[in-house]
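Interim report, section 4.2 (structural modelling).
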Amino acid sequence: MIMKQNINDESQNKIMFLKGGEKDLITLHKVIQLTLCHNITVNEFFNKIISLISPAMQTPSDIHVRILYEENEYKSEDFKDYQWTYSSKIVVFGSISGILEVKSCSNEGKFLRREIVIIDTITKEICKYLEQNQLRIRLQETESQLCELTDGLSNWIWFPEQRELKAFLRKQAKQKTHEYIDKEYQIEQIIESVSEGILVLDTEGKIIFANKAIKDYFHKIMGEILLIGTNIVLSDRDHIFLKPIKQIFMGTASNYTTIEAIPGLYLQFCSSSNIMHEFGSMGPIIEVKNVTSFIEYNNMRKQFISNVSHELRTPISVVIQSITNLKIFKKHLSEEVQDQLIDYILNNAKLMANLIEDLLIGSKIDDSKMKFVWDYYQPQQIIQEVITQLEPKWKAKKIFIDLFINERIKLIGDVKRMAQVFRILLDNAIKYSEAKKEVRINVLNHYQGVFNPKNLEGILIQFIDYGRGIHEKDLPQLFDRFYRAEDVQGIQGTGLGLSIAKELVESHKGAIFVESTYRKGSIFSVFLPYLSDTLETKEKKITDYQVEVKGG
Amino acid sequence: MKKTILVVEDNPAVLFNLKITLEFDNYDVITAENGKEGIKVLSEMDTIPTLIISDIMMPEMNGYEFFKTVSLNPDWSFIPFLFLTAKATPEDVRFGKLLGVDDYITKPFIAEDLLAVIKGKIIRYNERNLIRKQIEEQILSSFHENSPHPLSVDPNSSISLLFFAWDEERGPELINIYPKDPPQRSELMYEVGIQLFQASVSIFGQHGYYGSAGVLLNVQNIGQDSYVFFDAKKDKQIRGGEKLFMLAVLAPNINYFKSLKINELFLKISSKIKQSTEWNIKKRWEEVSQILNSL
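Predicted structure of the assembly:
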């Protein structure tokens, strides 16, 4: 019994579905017939279309339709703004010229999938019709002009081949018109697809032309469709996007106005002078450029300059202070104190030299102008030197440095560059460590493990701190140049160090890795393979990277 | 007696040099490596230092927190406080000054400049301190007869905002007071206000400065703290061409940090008074209460 009921329900549904399909077909047929009629006006066309839509919907009595096309509005009888709206854009020759809105007050909810498909299909047919219509009208105009011309001609002269000539001229006219329309269409398409927004107003502030980019911005920023013919200048709406357009129209804008239209999207507005059109005066042509990447780069540059100047302030301060004290109080200072001051001067001058080196390397990596001097070096020795160099920093925070290394290792590489890598990593470990904690450096020879996926012969050097750690979301960008996590903005740094370390390690055929637990600490691991020391590879490596750096 | 300066700085080289510079300029220098240690040093000192110089970016407790802790403590809040820092963008400087520090010096700095600032701050601090003490003493003596003062035992002790102006013939004149109720209390407030004004005018006058100056007082015998602010409005009809006025807050407890915020508010009111624009005393009283009741 239940089974039978189910089957009945199902067949009932299928019949409903088929009936729905039949309804769609009938509607579409009527729409297509309508588009083939050439003897109706656009007004009549739209009104007929409107009358065809509601019968195609599930609950015709609850449906209201409105078409906005250029400056006109077409509505179904007793049009009301109901809760549910489905709208479809009317695009003529690639530009949005209008919109078809179907509104429903049905309690059953939104539109059915079937209904949406039929609305979209009808809209497409409307677009095709409008395009053809425009072409047809232009053709007729040219033809009639030509007819007038040839008719006028025949009134003056009569000759036997007149009829043929007339036909020939008509044929020519038809062809030329098509070519002309094609060309015009091409130009329109080019302007349409330019990535910069182009907006043309008339002298009253109405939109004469807007290309795709402008319409896209309008839609993205204001959430509306921009229609040709509307007047956005005289409307009393106050929107950040409309303000520069209004200013340009009123002539009160500066040459280039930049706004942040929505967070992270910067647009620059500029205008050309008004051009006089053959058929009356056109208002300004407004260009709208997306300058986001420029602004972002500029902000990053500003931040970088402020970071660098900040990094330089403390060491310069120490140098000035120490020299001043030596100069003024020299006679009164003990030899010990004098030596201490000279050491401070030297250390801080070196610190500044290192910073400049970092900056220079950054720009050299950019231009791939890095020059390496390949030689044997002992990592343990270099690390020891770096530890001594950074002594003031770790002593100030009462940090203990533990260096674990149990054998003499010899590697091939550029000593100066590798020292730079170790300095960057140790400096970070100290900087982000908590006070009075330990920073550990492990050096493992013949390392085989996750940081050496190709199982090469080489060493692993790890810098381990128990500090603030790194947020998981910051890890992927950590080695990007200038990148600094938001939560370390209060700590000194240029955002250069890790990107340089990575480049340098990679140019030694090595790899650098980070593991971190937020608020617990971080481990930076550097794997360096043994490079073969034959002269051949040595030379080859030099040519790989060596391009003479000009100047000092 | 040598004056003592507390220097809080995490960079040993900067600290070492500062110590030399200051000691040769005849100051005693006490040092701390971060804010936390600075607080510890302060609480262990027998006499408070004459001035504090602090870095901003330091481990454990940074300069901002250190300044806040210092200014919330009534024993330390009067000590002139300087930031000496590498944070030098206009935004950083603005932020530091907004906190209410006495000066903001950026690295690198010239030793002579730093010494000049320190000297200036100490002179000003001494002057202020003297004025404060004198006013407090004078008020104390003026309320001696009927002690204990009824306000000191008032269980509903709350915040009052007073606005007085000086009249050539009549002396201090109450323009407005909030709250007006209960009348008994506002009567007492009026009396205290008159005393404050008279005492302050005579003492400020001795030192030769009126106009946009505020002072935080502890009026012990009435159990109130008071922040008193003076300024003058241009008035051609008066001898001297200026009419002196006073804004004052009386409340059971006003600390230095909050007095800085009240000062900001009073500067705003003052500019309205000078332009003869209306201002709403109830609204301003609410703002004062918000400052005093916040943490």
